[in-house]
Amino acid sequence: MINWDIFISLLEVVRSHERKSNAGRPPFDVLMMFKVLILKNIYNLSDDQFEFQIRDRRTFLMFLGITSVDRIPDSKTIWLFGEQLSQLGLAEKLFQRFNDELKRQGVLIKGGIAIDGTFVDVPKQHFTKDDYEQIKKGEKPASRTIKKSIESQTDFDARYTKLGLQYEQIDKYKSKK
User: Fold this and answer.
1) CB 11 within 8 Å of CB 30
2) Closest C-alpha among 126, 131, 115, 95 to residue 167
3) pTM to 2 decimals?
4) Largest CA distance in the chain
5) Under 8 Å between Cβ of 91 and 85
6) Which of 7, 12, 46, 51 could form a disulfide with 75 if both were Cys (CB 3.0 to 4.6 A apart)?
């Protein structure tokens, strides 16, 4: 679905900087190596883990256009190719062009981070609505003096929920009363 020819002009720069001599194994195809970096970034894998996944996943092999009997790039080769793209200033241009091509086809890839949210029991805080407004602004409640022992145990940045409500912040919860 993706027209890979649009990347060739940028990747030709990598080919021209690639080899100092003809000794040793021939280099991997630069387009295939760029596809390696695409998959590596989409799946957020380390170089070592990606090397394993190439050998393990048939879909990766198909995307890369290789078979299980072909030579597969090792983790060091993957890392070196990524470094080479960065040093030549091509990494951002190539990935931007890739994202533009996906957008043109109506595909949007988003990334995210999973954060562990844990419910913990805390002592009930008896703040007034004005106190909550001040806390929301990053200030400490001025309506009453708080003992040092209570203040040190109060997390003014935390947001609370009550069992049975869906992850609502204090200000949303208070406005329902």
Assistant:
1) yes
2) 115
3) 0.59
4) 79
5) yes
6) 51
